[in-house]
Amino acid sequence: MSEQVLFKNRRVDCRPASLADYRAGGGYEALTKAVRTMTPDEVIKVVMDSGLRGRGGAGFPTGRKWSFVRKDAPHPRYIQCNTDEMEPGTFKDRILVNTDPHLVIEGIVLCGYAVQADHGVFFIRPSYDADARLLERELEVAREAGLLGKNILGSDFSFDIDVHRSAGRYICGESSAQANAIMGKRPNPDKNSHMTDSGLWGLPTVVNNVETLASVPSILRNGVEWFQTLAASPTGDGTKLYSVSGEVAEPGCFELPGGTRLGDIIFGAAGGMLPGAEFKTCLPGGTSTSFVAREHLETPMDFDSMKKAGLSLGTGSVIVFDKNTCLVQATINILAYFARESCGWCTPCREGIPYMKHILERIEAGEAGERDVELLQRVADGMEHAYCGFAPGAAMPVHGLLKHFRDEVREHLDGRGCPFVGEGVAKPGLWTSLDRDETVPDEADSEGRDG
Amino acid sequence: MLPRELEQEIAEMVRETDHVEEKIIDVIYLLQRHFGYFSDEAMGHAARLTGKTLVELEELATFYDFIYREPLGRFVIHVCDGVTCWMHHENGLFDYLCRKLGVEVGETTADGLFTVLPTACLGNCHNAPAMLVNGEHYGRLTPEKVDRILDNLRENADTIPLCLCR
Ligand code: SF4
Ligand code: FES
């Protein structure tokens, strides 16, 4: 196994690492070093030099984002830690929080120190209520240990973190929508404000994903050079959490060198296909990325390599499809999700996504012809004109379907309907027993810490 | 009238914050748990206690998945219909649950115990098909497993405390 940095304290019994566990492995050494021996600018510089990029999907350089907070900016300043992940296939942050809560907490405090913030807000979705409770408990533990609150570790830096419970909705993962949600407004995105100037309550706010922040403590402790040796590809900054789900033998979340080849993630870490299943394609980074062609299995899973291949890394959540699964149906499912989760603010998204779904349903039923496929392409192209990145993201699987699986789509046309219906085809819907071992103990299940 | 403890809990929450807006969702959750759903009466209390207008509250209540403006069962069964769960036969899970409970998706059982709702990915895709009930995650569901979960909830319905984000 390659070096485990984020999952260093992952335990076989799935219990989250305690403060003592975390400290035994060098936890909070980075914070001690930072507040006692480093200036905030030095911290930013190390993070910048490391090349760490945001793990929430956009891949923006983390240190640069932090450097946008002006030195003379007003207080209080905020850190918004994003734990929303509602996109199908994505579960890395939930596992990370449940593996090592203090790693995440230390990451937030370090970010707070770097930009001289006053408050951190842990934004957490309602279906992670067990995680919210866990965090509240561990935040209190950190406070009692002097790692949080007034004069952290005896320094003159004070910073505290609150847990903000969301009430659901995928769009709350978008940073400005999330800020609106925290401020009790309807969480539509707001593209007019720069969060680092005017975020929460009109004050400077840095928004980072859980995984991004959790990567910071080890960089400060072990140094930039060490961090750069972790990746498998030249631009694969550090290690990366890849969550793999779908028709694979061992679905789960794996910490691997950043830039590990897509095929190695699926056929190595995730144990390859389920018995009886054959690889057709995958969505490499969650449902707002494109279906890939077979040759893409060679592509390193980092931001730049994926981009070069015309794909995107997204959250690094690989969803794997079997040869017998109809991709038209799969895309209908994905569009139903996006149609339901659209915030409804702008027309291309609000009207366009249901429209794409409608066209695909006609294709699936055999009621469509070649011209409908062209129409589908046009509507998908039109998603570029939506207000935020949600709609272009929703169109990505459609683009992938039409680019790499047009023949499969064509087989549905002109009265023929879905070719995947029939004897011996394991269709979604025929749920009798599960085709995998029941290896997850009930107890871990019910505590929300399976994984 | 609200029970005195709840009234005080909310009043204190509002008093202690710099921004009452930040606490609105928590206030709604507390009232929702008390009333079983975010009823008009609950909304009236929320408005009174936070100083927000009914329109402002309605605007939020109708946006979010976990705020319910209609009555529903004690246990809300959130079944994931994300694409990974879909390929692991989430349709069958819905079908089984609904037949077992004698309801359609969105309906509540006659005894007022269960409501079945579709939900966005629960972050449990590696254990698909997955569902969430009262804050607890259940995965790799089989008919037998579903039976056990329902039986347990039914038998202990009176003693299982409801979590905040139901
Ligand atoms: S693209 Fe969709 S989610 Fe984004 S603002 Fe428009 S309607 Fe809302
Ligand atoms: S797709 Fe069902 S839990 Fe993620």
From TrEMBL, chain A:
<dbReference type="InterPro" id="IPR001949">
    <property type="entry name" value="NADH-UbQ_OxRdtase_51kDa_CS"/>
</dbReference>
<dbReference type="GO" id="GO:0016491">
    <property type="term" value="F:oxidoreductase activity"/>
</dbReference>
<dbReference type="InterPro" id="IPR037225">
    <property type="entry name" value="Nuo51_FMN-bd_sf"/>
</dbReference>
<dbReference type="Pfam" id="PF10589">
    <property type="entry name" value="NADH_4Fe-4S"/>
</dbReference>
<keyword id="KW-0004">4Fe-4S</keyword>
<dbReference type="InterPro" id="IPR019554">
    <property type="entry name" value="Soluble_ligand-bd"/>
</dbReference>
<dbReference type="InterPro" id="IPR011538">
    <property type="entry name" value="Nuo51_FMN-bd"/>
</dbReference>
<protein>
    <submittedName>
        <fullName>NADH-quinone oxidoreductase subunit F</fullName>
        <ecNumber>1.6.5.11</ecNumber>
    </submittedName>
</protein>
<dbReference type="GO" id="GO:0010181">
    <property type="term" value="F:FMN binding"/>
</dbReference>
<dbReference type="Pfam" id="PF10531">
    <property type="entry name" value="SLBB"/>
</dbReference>
<dbReference type="GO" id="GO:0008137">
    <property type="term" value="F:NADH dehydrogenase (ubiquinone) activity"/>
</dbReference>
<dbReference type="InterPro" id="IPR037207">
    <property type="entry name" value="Nuop51_4Fe4S-bd_sf"/>
</dbReference>
<dbReference type="InterPro" id="IPR019575">
    <property type="entry name" value="Nuop51_4Fe4S-bd"/>
</dbReference>
<keyword id="KW-0479">Metal-binding</keyword>
<keyword id="KW-0411">Iron-sulfur</keyword>
<keyword id="KW-0560">Oxidoreductase</keyword>
<keyword id="KW-0408">Iron</keyword>
<feature type="domain" description="NADH-ubiquinone oxidoreductase 51kDa subunit iron-sulphur binding">
    <location>
        <begin position="328"/>
        <end position="373"/>
    </location>
</feature>
<dbReference type="Pfam" id="PF01512">
    <property type="entry name" value="Complex1_51K"/>
</dbReference>
<comment type="similarity">
    <text>Belongs to the complex I 51 kDa subunit family.</text>
</comment>
<dbReference type="GO" id="GO:0051539">
    <property type="term" value="F:4 iron, 4 sulfur cluster binding"/>
</dbReference>
<dbReference type="GO" id="GO:0046872">
    <property type="term" value="F:metal ion binding"/>
</dbReference>
From TrEMBL, chain B:
<keyword id="KW-0411">Iron-sulfur</keyword>
<dbReference type="Pfam" id="PF01257">
    <property type="entry name" value="2Fe-2S_thioredx"/>
</dbReference>
<keyword id="KW-0001">2Fe-2S</keyword>
<dbReference type="GO" id="GO:0046872">
    <property type="term" value="F:metal ion binding"/>
</dbReference>
<feature type="binding site">
    <location>
        <position position="125"/>
    </location>
    <ligand>
        <name>[2Fe-2S] cluster</name>
    </ligand>
</feature>
<feature type="binding site">
    <location>
        <position position="80"/>
    </location>
    <ligand>
        <name>[2Fe-2S] cluster</name>
    </ligand>
</feature>
<feature type="binding site">
    <location>
        <position position="121"/>
    </location>
    <ligand>
        <name>[2Fe-2S] cluster</name>
    </ligand>
</feature>
<protein>
    <submittedName>
        <fullName>NADH-quinone oxidoreductase subunit E</fullName>
        <ecNumber>1.6.5.11</ecNumber>
    </submittedName>
</protein>
<keyword id="KW-0479">Metal-binding</keyword>
<keyword id="KW-0560">Oxidoreductase</keyword>
<dbReference type="InterPro" id="IPR036249">
    <property type="entry name" value="Thioredoxin-like_sf"/>
</dbReference>
<feature type="binding site">
    <location>
        <position position="85"/>
    </location>
    <ligand>
        <name>[2Fe-2S] cluster</name>
    </ligand>
</feature>
<dbReference type="InterPro" id="IPR042128">
    <property type="entry name" value="NuoE_dom"/>
</dbReference>
<dbReference type="GO" id="GO:0051537">
    <property type="term" value="F:2 iron, 2 sulfur cluster binding"/>
</dbReference>
<comment type="similarity">
    <text>Belongs to the complex I 24 kDa subunit family.</text>
</comment>
<dbReference type="InterPro" id="IPR041921">
    <property type="entry name" value="NuoE_N"/>
</dbReference>
<dbReference type="InterPro" id="IPR002023">
    <property type="entry name" value="NuoE-like"/>
</dbReference>
<dbReference type="GO" id="GO:0003954">
    <property type="term" value="F:NADH dehydrogenase activity"/>
</dbReference>
<keyword id="KW-0408">Iron</keyword>
